[in-house]
Amino acid sequence: MTDIVSYNPYDLPLRDRHRLLTGAVGPRPICWASTLSKEGNANLAPYSFFNLFSSNPPIIVFSSNRRGRDNTTKDTYHNLLDNGEVVVNMVSYDLVHQMNISSTDYAENINEFSKAGVTPIASEVVKPFRVKEAKVQLECTLEDTKHLGNEGGAGTLFICAIQKIHIHTSILAEDGLIDSQKIDLVGRLGRNDYLRASGDAIFSINNPFEKQNVGFDNLPKGLVESKILTGAELAQLAMETQLPSEEDLLNHQEETPDHEEKLHQMIREKIKEGGYQASLALAMNFYKR
Ligand SMILES: Cc1cc2nc3c(=O)[nH]c(=O)nc-3n(C[C@H](O)[C@H](O)[C@H](O)COP(=O)(O)O)c2cc1C
């Protein structure tokens, strides 16, 4: 009896495959893509098969998919292939409902800026408009296109180089970087669900990339097999960049309890206060390393 259900994706009807995968891979950032048609009509539509893929050169990629119901392609797709320019506008929580309106399947000549009630402003490098209200607007040119298939649901990847970055100063912190709380981004989940990245949903984790960490494999085995401590708690100890010294071990000798359950409870309390070295010293003393 297993509690995992497994699928070959090709055995699933397209709709179910799409819904399972978009429920699993998330939250996805949203590219609110502004393009211009050959005739010069403004177009605005959201795309969550999207991310930043390179800083040097600065590259974003998003995918416009063939419609599952009739295998047709979208206006953004045609506009990019026609003139190779797009402005990627980032979607903050205050814009999420207007973004949603712009995803409606309007005819090619309908201006989604007007439908969604957002303000088109001129770009500096490319011809498509920026969304004035978007806190970040990225002017981009098309670098490369990759068609992933010819059937309904197939994506076309648009690999785009960022030529200009516009940022509302209201979302900047004192150090000139973007304040995660102020930009208040939204991400796309499965179903009709979204994530608002603000308040308690945002947390920070220190990661001294340049230094090697201790890793789970160097923690005492009895600690790793704990029935009390969670993987997340143990990971905070495994993130330490060195094990306690002989002196540290001696300093914690007296404090080391003789019951395993007590030890794990003590370590839990110490982890809460950031006492990672002390936790490791107690564990190493208890398990004699
Ligand atoms: C939040 C959100 C994310 C979306 N992401 C995608 C996507 O990644 N790829 C896609 O083809 N359609 C996506 N859509 C659907 C398109 O926005 C929709 O088909 C739209 O009408 C296309 O507009 P266009 O023809 O003006 O390009 C998304 C819709 C929403 C609301």
Q: Identify the strand order in the major beta sheet.
A: 3-2-6-9-10-5-4
N-to-C CA distance: 38 Å
CATH topology of the largest domain: Pnp Oxidase, Chain A
Mean pLDDT, all residues: 96
Strand content: 15-25%
- The CATH architecture assignment of the largest domain turns out to be Roll
Shape, principal axes of CA atoms: elongated
Key terms for this structure?
single chain; 289 residues; alpha+beta; Pnp Oxidase, Chain A; 12 strands; elongated; binds flavin mononucleotide
What does this structure look like?
Strands 3-2-6-9-10-5-4 form a 7-stranded antiparallel β-sheet, covered by helices on one side. The protein has helices at 14-24, 75-83, 96-101, 112-116, 180-183, 221-224, 231-238, 246-251, 260-272, 276-286, and strands at 28-29, 31-36, 42-47, 50-55, 58-65, 85-90, 120-121, 130-131, 136-147, 155-167, 186-188, 194-196. The chain is built from 10 helices and 12 strands. The protein is of the alpha+beta class. It folds into 2 domains: 9-201, Electron Transport, Fmn-binding Protein, Chain A (Pnp Oxidase, Chain A, Roll), CATH 2.30.110; 216-286, no CATH class. The chain binds flavin mononucleotide (FMN). Residues 30, 43, 45-49, 63-65, 74-76, 100, 103, 105, 188 line the site of flavin mononucleotide (FMN).
